Amino acid sequence: MTSLARPQTPFAVVDRDRLDRNVARLRTHLARLGVPLRLHVKTSKSIDVAARVFRDAPGPITVSTLAEAEHFAGAGYTDILYAVGLAPDKLDRVVALRRRGVDLTVLIDSPVQAEAVAAASRAAGIRIPALIEIDCDGHRGGLAVTDPGLIGIGRTLRDGGAELRGVLDHAGESYFSATADEQRRDADHERRTVVRAAEALRAAGLPCPVVSVGSTPTAHAATVLHGAALDGVTEVRAGNFVFFDLVMAGIGVCTVEDLALSVVVTVIGHRPDKGWVLTDGGWMATSRDRGTAAQRVDQGYGLVTDLNGRVIPDLLMTGASQEHGTLSLRPGSTAKLPDLPIGTRLRILPNHACATAAQHAQYTVVAGTAGDDGAPRIAGIWPRHNGW
């Protein structure tokens, strides 16, 4: 299998050159700000992708499942943050990872969780470290920075046999900020909120060595604003940036030319009466994410390109059943539906890279020049690790 014209469709493709450019861009930006990256591996779930970020040796990572933590630990990653609110019944797996020499940190935002972490620490004779999640924008979990329970949770961890390692927030609403100015304000608000929480803990005599922020939009937008960049922050978490997607392009964090993930599909039929081209790539291959629907430009279920990655003007994936994708012209377009015979291979650029990647067990990697048949040359296969 020398090119994208060979493997049976549908399958996920990663453009290695684009991925490397995306990584270099954020790495350079954060180096200027003097704050390290803690890569979030939930997007790629791939050891090979992480190795493109950490060229010399495994570095600090964030995971969204304990299956990710276990998988990456097996590859030598020992500094791991499990950044989803902790279900207490998972603490046995946390303890097992720490006994393997993994410095695994958990995330909590309630007294119940704090007491569970403390109890598990005492029972195992291991001080399990935890970050307290702070809500900076009402997007999901976390404590308000003014919540009086913050200090109590910190004391429960410290005095109960666990370790209070610090605080974390996530500017999830930044994914809906459509201008650079809005994203810079999101980044500044994210920083100010979590630093304020850290200062409250320290004022109460509690330790707070880690002050963690992160989202792909705010990681790129963080800059000097109101006299501060990332002052008081010890790390930045981001993961989507390795691939980017149409949601990120839609809010200006990247361009369509930066998207490193796509899905190759094959034309299997036509409905000229409806203006449809049918493919073998339904939502089981691309996901049903419609993240651009609320944006200024709705990209349906994804943009369509030819096999070499050139966008076909005004052609969208507009429908998805389990194993069928429907392609049609963008509403309002005056273009003519392109002639795409049965057997034609196309690529779909996804709305949400995390969701699309999750449909696949591996990535077919392309890089450099085309093969003998003119299609992009396959440079390798990178496995990914699904599950919880």
Element layout with pairings:
Layout: E1 11-15, H1 16-33, E2 37-40, H2 47-53, E3 61-63, H3 66-74, E4 79-85, H4 91-99, E5 103-108, H5 111-124, E6 129-134, H6 149-160, E7 163-169, H7 180-203, E8 210-213, H8 216-221, E9 235-238, H9 246-250, E10 261-271, E11 276-279, H10 283-286, E12 302-306, E13 311-320, E14 325-329, E15 345-349, H11 353-357, E16 362-370, E17 376-383
Parallel strand pairs: 1-16, 2-3, 2-9, 3-4, 4-5, 5-6, 6-7, 7-8, 8-9
Antiparallel strand pairs: 1-10, 10-11, 10-15, 11-14, 12-13, 12-15, 13-14, 16-17
Describe what this molecule looks like in 3D.
This protein is of the alpha/beta class. The chain has 2 domains: 35-233, Alanine racemase (TIM Barrel, Alpha-Beta Barrel), CATH 3.20.20.10; 253-383, D-serine dehydratase-like domain (Lyase, Ornithine Decarboxylase, Chain A, domain 1), CATH 2.40.37. The chain is 29% helix and 27% strand. It has 11 helices and 17 strands. An 8-stranded parallel barrel has the order 2-3-4-5-6-7-8-9, surrounded by 5 helices. Strand 4 (79-85), helix 4 (91-99) and strand 5 (103-108) form a beta-alpha-beta unit. Helix 5 packs parallel to helix 6 (149-160). The model has no long low-confidence stretch (mean pLDDT 95).
